[in-house]
Write a structure and sequence with these properties.
There is one protein chain. By secondary structure, the protein is mostly beta strands. The protein has a single domain, classed as Beta Barrel (Cathepsin D, subunit A, domain 1), CATH 2.40.70.10. It contains four helices and 17 strands.
Length: about 240
């Protein structure tokens, strides 16, 4: 199995996993045992596991990044009452959305097909999409960095900016993004364009409704915060706008 990073790791199938939270029980038909020991030092804490879409899809899942809470609602009775925008989801094992990418100095946007991943710290474009559209050349400033450490080990990319990312009618301006340089793994595939990570998702109250194939994005208090990357060494260059 491969995730972010270029290495392949062995995984083991677990049948009929039961997962409990206070007042809530899940039963997943399948789950996987994956070695996380290499990831923990890079995450800054021991990582015991990941809650995947097969569990989240059993309920309407609401993530409030400001209050640091996750709420699960019964899909058959849930009615969204917020002021967010409903974005259609394409569910192909993972949730995908259609988006538009605006580059510096270019008027016409590029169409992109992006995965939503709350576990990715920085929004990333897959290396084939980066090369095909010349994304690095259109970034006003760049710096090479290890952008993450996933199941497959280190992931390397060129950190830069795009002028904007549009999802539905929502426009995220001047985000810092990863132009992946991986040659293997999840960020090297050409089956989709890239991944919207927690750096963008945390600016919304996010409600995943898998049953209705939609996600609600409601701007929160973090929405207008400037995008930044790690402030060590030359990465500080990206703090300029």
């Amino acid at each position: 199995m491969g995730g972010a990073g270029e290495k392949q790791v062995d995984m083991y199938l677990i049948n009929n996993l039961k997962y409990e939270l206070p007042g809530l029980k899940f039963t997943a038909e399948n789950a996987f045992a994956i070695p996380f020991d290499g990831m923990s030092p890079h995450w800054g804490r021991r990582l015991e596991g990941l809650v995947g879409g097969n569990l989240i899809s059993c309920a309407v899942t609401e993530i409030d990044y400001v209050e640091k809470t996750v709420c699960f609602h019964a899909p058959e009775t849930f009615q969204y009452q917020g002021k967010g925008e409903a974005i259609p989801l394409d569910l192909k094992g993972w949730p995908f959305v259609e988006a538009k990418i605006f580059l510096t100095g270019e008027q016409d946007p590029i169409n992109a097909y992006l995965m939503l991943d709350t576990g990715l710290r920085i929004t990333s474009f897959n290396s084939p999409f980066v090369k095909e559209n010349g994304l690095i050349e259109q970034s006003p400033q760049t710096v090479k960095s290890m952008t993450g450490f996933g199941i497959g080990g280190e992931s390397w990319g060129i950190i830069g900016r795009v002028r904007a990312i549009q999802i539905g009618s929502i426009i995220i301006e001047n985000p810092v993004v990863d132009f992946s340089q991986d040659e293997k793994g999840a960020l090297a595939t050409d089956t989709y364009s890239g991944i919207i990570g927690a750096d963008i998702l945390c600016r919304f109250n996010v409600v995943f409704d898998y049953a209705k194939k939609q996600v609600f994005l409601e701007k929160n208090a973090y929405f207008s915060r400037p995008f930044e990357f790690d402030m060590s060494i030359s990465a500080g260059l990206l703090n300029s706008t």
